[in-house]
Amino acid sequence: MKPVPHVGVLAPYALADLPPELTSLAQNESFRPPSPKAVEAARGALSDAHLYPDPDWTALRSVIAAVHGVPEQAVLCGAGSMELIGALAASYLGSTDRMLTTEYAYLYFRTATQLSGAAFDLVGERDLTVDVDALIAAARPETKIVFVANPGNPTGTRIDRDALVRLRDGLAEDVLLVIDEAYGEFSDGAEASTFDLVERGNTMVLRTLSKAYGCAGLRVGWGVFPTAIATELRKVLNPNNVSGVSQSVAAAVMSDQAYMCETVSMTADLRDRFATRLRGVGLKVPVSATNFVLIVFSTDQAAAEADQALRGEGIGMRGMGGYGLPHCLRATIGDAATMDRAAACLERIVGVGR
Ligand SMILES: *Cc1c(COP(=O)(O)O)cnc(C)c1O
Question: How far is the CA of 347 from the centre of ligand 1 (A)?
């Protein structure tokens, strides 16, 4: 039996091949479990497991609206933000349309596009950072959606709000701009949020519980959408997409902003200390606004050797060959002891070559 052609040509999803005995720094999971409020909320929700979940995510949406000052009706929730990315592609990318993003953008943007049978264009980044002018110049009449992860994964770099506004102003009105802020909590408060751009009617902002909130296993993402787009996405989303337990836990952990902010600040401290040590032995580490860093080695072989040495220390980072960055490793920020071990290992092997 043959699948449809645009599925047949896709490569199987490749997770980092990490033996279970390794400590994983490969998936950008939080090193810290979710707020203790999570367990309490889950216990309560489990006794309602005979019921289908709330298709309107009412309690969760009201917490999101209160925390971020966005209208409740503009919020849609997904089984991870990946489901929302997939629903956007399914709703707006036909076989003659094109998606536009940057060369090191989150790979699922491409996968979702391919699953819709559409094509994509990639533009170069500048110094591992999204280049807004290159995106504007590369948009063609067939371009229907532009995806920008800000901060980027796997680069960790961030462009400011002014650059995003310039991008929006430079694109045609009928091009949808999707701003994926999976790591947005790591720079919330640094400048005005981007949620107000949604009022333009052609722009949307995605967030997730998987990173700063430490709930990757729950599969909860959300976004703020223009009304007309939300109406279409609703047709595509599974009406029971987020389980009752996940909705309850997500509402509880988002209500505990103090805990999440503490996670973000602990993570940022560990990240910056780790990056400083690596820069100290001459490794290039772009400034990250996330819970991971990209480590740039001088050659592909140096990255592969570092990966082997780290595995010898029981630590598994993510190789970046799939992103066209075979000379890089991406390191999720783990606990202090793990990051110390990883930094010491890299200092040892990189130091030897100098
Ligand atoms: C982790 C990540 C996501 C996916 O998150 P889920 O909500 O777990 O599906 C989306 N975009 C980027 C850029 C990410 O790094």
Answer: 30
Q: Measured over all CA atoms, what is the biggest interatomic distance in the chain, rounded to whole angstroms?
A: 62
DSSP character string of 57-118: -HHHHHHHHHHHT--GGGEEEESSHHHHHHHHHHHH--TT-EEEEETTS-THHHHHHHHTT-
Distance CA 298, CA 84 (A): 37
- Count Cβ atoms below 10 Å from residue 65 Cβ, excluding itself: 16
Mutate to test the pocket of ligand 1, among 13, 82, 155, 158 (most ligand atoms within 8 A of CB): 82
CA-nearest residue for atom 14, ligand 1, is 182
Average pLDDT across each block of 10 residues of the chain; the chain has 354 residues. List them in order.
Answer: 86 76 95 95 95 98 98 98 98 97 97 96 98 98 98 98 98 98 96 97 98 98 98 97 98 98 98 98 97 98 97 96 97 98 96 59
pLDDT at residue 39, rounded to an integer: 93
> Are 78 and 207 spatial neighbours (Cβ–Cβ below 8 Å)?
no
Q: Which helix (H) or strand (E) holds 23?
A: strand 23-25
Distance CA 295, CA 281 (A): 12
- DSSP assignment letter at 53: P
Nearest alpha-carbon partner for 262 in 31, 61, 48, 45: 31
Neighbouring residues of 189: CB distance < 8 A, sequence distance ≥ 6: none
Residues whose CB is less than 8 angstroms from the CB of residue 174 and which lie 6 or more positions away in sequence, other chains included: 202
Task: Report the predicted TM-score, pTM, of the whole model to 2 decimal places.
Answer: 0.97
State residue 8's pLDDT score: 86
Q: 265: how many CB neighbours lie within 10 A of its CB?
A: 11
Q: What is the pLDDT, as a whole number, of residue 20? A: 87
| β-pair type (143-149, 176-180) | parallel
Question: Measured from the CB, is residue 259 less than 6 Å from ligand 1?
Answer: no
Residues 6+ apart with CB under 8 A from 235: 91
Among residues 129, 126, 123, 132, the alpha carbon closest in space to that of 103 is found at 123
Q: What's the rounded Cα separation, in Å, for the pair 142 and 211?
A: 33
Two tokens at 289?
A: 């606004």
- Is 290's C-beta closer than 6 angstroms to any atom of ligand 1? no
